[in-house]
Amino acid sequence: MSTLPRHDHLRADAQRNLDLILAAAAEIFAEQGGEASVAAVAERAGVGTATIFRRFPTKDDLLATIIERRFQRLAEDTRRAAAIAEPGEALRQVMLISIASYVEDRLIAETIGTPLFHRTGLHELWAEVTSYKERALHHAQADGQVRPDVTLADFSLLLAAIGFVGQRLDTDAPDAWRRCLDIVLDGLRPEVARPLFGAPVALRHLAALHDSDEAHR
Amino acid sequence: MSTLPRHDHLRADAQRNLDLILAAAAEIFAEQGGEASVAAVAERAGVGTATIFRRFPTKDDLLATIIERRFQRLAEDTRRAAAIAEPGEALRQVMLISIASYVEDRLIAETIGTPLFHRTGLHELWAEVTSYKERALHHAQADGQVRPDVTLADFSLLLAAIGFVGQRLDTDAPDAWRRCLDIVLDGLRPEVARPLFGAPVALRHLAALHDSDEAHR
Amino acid sequence: MSTLPRHDHLRADAQRNLDLILAAAAEIFAEQGGEASVAAVAERAGVGTATIFRRFPTKDDLLATIIERRFQRLAEDTRRAAAIAEPGEALRQVMLISIASYVEDRLIAETIGTPLFHRTGLHELWAEVTSYKERALHHAQADGQVRPDVTLADFSLLLAAIGFVGQRLDTDAPDAWRRCLDIVLDGLRPEVARPLFGAPVALRHLAALHDSDEAHR
Amino acid sequence: MSTLPRHDHLRADAQRNLDLILAAAAEIFAEQGGEASVAAVAERAGVGTATIFRRFPTKDDLLATIIERRFQRLAEDTRRAAAIAEPGEALRQVMLISIASYVEDRLIAETIGTPLFHRTGLHELWAEVTSYKERALHHAQADGQVRPDVTLADFSLLLAAIGFVGQRLDTDAPDAWRRCLDIVLDGLRPEVARPLFGAPVALRHLAALHDSDEAHR
DNA sequence: GATGAATGAGAATTCATTCAT
DNA sequence: GATGAATGAATTCTCATTCAT
């Protein structure tokens, strides 16, 4: 499942360089998105570009690795949130974590659904994340805190929606999205439910949700 | 107000080519966003790149023209929707039109707030659009159909949010966002209103909403 | 000798256009030099570029024609000055006219000696101009007003030298070159003559004097 | 003061390439002036254009570096010449060096006074050169070898004038300008001085002397 | 005959990727 | 193993020249 290079005995300095690269890449891509240049990553890591390409034959390989690590953290965080006993609180935490992942990291929003996303094992991690969301949603619905006609797809879409605008406003109005979230939360309550448009959307379509902003080379 | 080149009597073939260019550019930029190459536009239009640069001295000029035309249509559509007598219906139509503009055109979401946006007359057209949104929102609030604590900024953010995910899903699940809209509409109803997070956001921050994904030209 | 297109019966409007083109080209090239674009000439003339290329198959042909006409005027002016009876005054006038031709027209200084210069009949006109200079110089020498060791080549070089700096300073210090001229005039007087460096230079080398500033396409 | 990239330990091959680039650029720009293409420099250096852009982010950076090195040499040479004890000989040497700098390098004549000139430290170096010229001129005047009505501006102009024609004739009649210089030197002698035209020119106008032939970058 | 339009070649620059030390 | 260096492909833009109306 992992694309991380695992030369089992990486020399100590090599391992240190790899760590530097991963840290730098995570920062740069989170800040600037996937169009950031490899040179920028190299500079922040304090290594040469060739060192990066030794570990990651392709820029996309580097991107995939970064994303994968991010997803692992996201999966773990989401799992923990979904395990909260009180269904409403679990739901709320899951939502906050999901939205925050978009807000804090441009790469996440850009990558899911791209060729990159499908070429690596990312969608399996994504499926895992989704399963935790599902659990939280269903518990809340079973508990009567969320209207039953809302599907997992609807739920995920709403999170992405709020995450996207949150990301765009992160520097100028960092908390603006929280008011949107509150409105959406009110809209999820069963007391007000009016019938929803059309038929439920298949979850598999949601991969496209995160198509990169540009054609992927 | 228009940046469109208006050599009042453009030769028939030239006018045809200009139309081809505008159509191709609108399509390409709508699909791929503003980073699409001029060459891509030229190819789809069936002309050489130099032909485009004859009409539009700069790529930004082309982008500005495309955007401006799109905004004019948007402003007109929104005006008409906001003029509908029944406040709830007016609001619904305004929302649909606004979201659709994001869904159908990547360039719109990318451009607002960028230097391009400020260099041309775009922000005036945008202010016009915003004023129609405001009218629709306030009428609906005065009529008791929308909770009073929702501001124009909240409202605009929600539209952008739904628009963003709608755009991403446009090819794979074209109507998926409509269910999100319904949920949000329910969240806007006064009878469910729970207090919103923090203080209202100033509208001017929303410019950043649409900041381009790359370093601003 | 002339490269001017001589369709013997040019329609009245065509002749008018040709005149407009010649006038505009003379202005533009005098101001901006030979790198000025054909489009710039067309615009100032109020005609289309194709109209220019109908008369002048090549930009170089246009340049040659402009230069030729300028040289004709220069030849006539120099002839008249050289005909002045008093040798010192004749010399002075010839010098002023020669220098002024450089100062007022960037094209002149740029063109002589280039492939362009040799491809057309320009060097014959130039020879004519030179012959008038020669007459003025020799008269002044015969009259004892100019040292006898100064050759026609030396004399021409000095004029070009002062002309070049005059041109560069034309806008910022329009008369600065006149002080240089006075110093040179003093240097030409016989009473101060000390022996000159090396052997006299062959006149034919002076064509190179005016090599264009850029490689000629 | 230097714009030369000084990665203190440039790898041997890189240093060799950098030297090749600098040498090629100095040659090409000296021969063809600043409009020469980077590709032409790259070809002569035997490297790709991108290699040049790695060291010099901008063509102007390359130009500035080349010019600066040339100016440093010029300043040193002029300083040395101005330090010669015998005032007449010092003056003569200063003049020869100044003129030779124009003759050998088109870039020098083109650059002074342009934005490039002001953006880099060039004008300070130029001011230094000018101060040496001034010293040589004033010594010669104090010693009675040069007429007192000649200003530093006049002097500089004469050098530029001879330098310009010398440059044009460099290949065809390499020493022709020396005879001009001798005539000018005679014109500078006090014994023959007749009053000069108009008022002295301010030195600052002379910047324009060297304005590039094309629209300033 | 005249014109605006179209184009192809070239220029500066950037960047992922490969190579030599 | 690591690195800085080299490069080729792509991008925006310009301009002399040819073409279609």
Could you characterize the architecture of this molecule?
The structure is a homotetramer of 217-residue chains. Chain A is an all-alpha fold and 217 residues long. Chain A has a domain at 66-210: Tetracycline Repressor, domain 2 (Orthogonal Bundle), CATH 1.10.357. Chain A is 64% helix and 0% strand. Chain A has 10 helices and no strands. The first copy, chain A, is elongated. The two termini of chain A are 23 Å apart. The model of chain A is unreliable at 211-217 (pLDDT under 50). At the A-B interface, helix 9 and helix 10 of A face helix 9 and helix 10 of B.
What pair of chains forms the biggest interface?
A: A-B, 58 and 56 residues
Helix content of chain A: 55-70%
Number of helices of chain A: 10
Overall pLDDT of chain A: 86
Tertiary shape of chain A: elongated
List low-confidence stretches of chain A. 211-217
Query: Which architecture of the domain at 66-210 in chain A does the CATH hierarchy give at level 2?
Result: Orthogonal Bundle
What is the total tally of β strands of chain A?
0
Oligomeric state of shown chains: homotetramer
**Terminus-to-terminus distance of chain A:** 23 Å
Spell the H/E element sequence of chain A: HHHHHHHHHH
Rg of chain A is 19 Å
The percent range for strand residues of chain A is under 5%
The class by helix and strand makeup of chain A works out as: mainly alpha
**CATH class designation of the domain at 66-210 in chain A:** Mainly Alpha
User: CATH fold name of the domain at 66-210 in chain A, please?
Assistant: Tetracycline Repressor, domain 2
Largest sheet of chain A: none
